[in-house]
Design brief:
Elements: H1 3-9, E1 34-37, H2 43-53, E2 57-62, H3 83-86, E3 92-96, H4 102-113, E4 117-120, H5 126-129, H6 134-140, E5 145-150, H7 165-172, H8 192-215, E6 220-224, H9 225-232, H10 234-243, E7 255-259, E8 264-268, H11 275-282, H12 298-303, H13 305-316, H14 321-330, E9 334-337, H15 341-346, H16 348-352, E10 356-361, E11 365-370, H17 394-400, H18 405-414
Parallel strand pairs: 1-2, 1-4, 2-3, 4-5, 5-6
Antiparallel strand pairs: 7-8, 8-9, 10-11
Helix pairs in contact: 1-17, 2-8, 7-9, 8-9
Length: 418
Amino acid sequence: MTVQEQATTAPGHHPADRTLGAGPGPAAPLDGIKVVDFTQVFMGPSCTQLLGDYGADVVKIERPGSGDISRNSFPDPDGQDNPIFLSINRNKRSISVDTRTDEGRSVLLRMMRDADVVVSNFRSGVMERMGFGYDELSKVNPSLIWASGTGFGDTGPYAAKGGQDAIAQAYSGVMWRRNSDDIEPAIYPTTLCDYTTGMHLLQGILLALRTRETTGVGQKVEVTMYDSMLHMQMQEACMELNRGYEVNWGAMPLSGVFTTTDGAVCMVGGFTKDPLHHISLALELDVDLSTDPDYATLELQFENKGALQDIFRRRIAANTTAYWTKRLEDHGVLNAPVHTLAQALADEQTTANNMVVETEHPTAGRVKMLNAPIRLSATPPVVRRPAPRLGEHNVEVLLENGYDEDTIRNLQELGVLR
């Protein structure tokens, strides 16, 4: 079999123009944009998957044998093609190249000479040590957008530290901020920092692409998990910096999560003229608490929060979630049942928003995953291909970049491509 046949007949081969469940339509917003993707785990891949969802040709660079770390995060029947990896790597092609070799670095350098965007989320200095820093690449490709997401940036006392979601939560003050002082600081159980930083990385790339339309010149885009977490607290930080006062939206006296007979309800008392009056009516209290002098002002409500919330807690514990959500809704009090993830995924609103899509994967079979959350009326996101198998597109990508069959075969025999 020729190298060309390997590229077109390999199991799971998906031509670049294949769409799954989508017919012809307007060009995608990022059609023609070539992305070389060095990212792994979650922060970077969440960014590059959205680039792919909106039309960019994303080529994922992976380690031979092991690939992206998320391929091996949890033991799974599908091995390296597990749901963790599949969830953030659709609309990409994978090549597995040994970057420790001169030949491997040469392959990648040739790709980056013609790329629009190079994205990484290594520690500061790793791309430079491989010879792929911005200064080096911009000399051979002045229009290149070089985008990097790190934990803390390349200067300052934490520059050499590894960026990790929980570590960024701890350093940035996010972990310390909780609903009350009697709750121990804890890791937020969803990758808050990774996702936020990935979205900032995406924004930076799009801004740089827009600027390049005018100037014709690329630039360096840098985001850090630390900065993203600080920026998420912009309101709280401004109060702290200018008033020395800590704002804690989760500790508001008329808000909280309260256990019912069959679950829990989240109540937010605010955004109305007299929220405590409406809460008193909704909870069918004998006394209108808004007339109680102990709770007459917000300051007094904070001062007497413990007693006030005990009233809410005892009352709400006496009936079901459905009962209280209806009562609160009928009286104009913001509320919601506290769902598990499984309940949220099965919710009618999730279906109405088309937030679950399916793809066919050659190893994992039919795979359900979340859709892109940005809805464009004329150019919606399209799942053109499932997440790639490790090195699935080695031959295909090299042929596109001008390598002939003999050279590709030689690189395979040398172990540069595996």
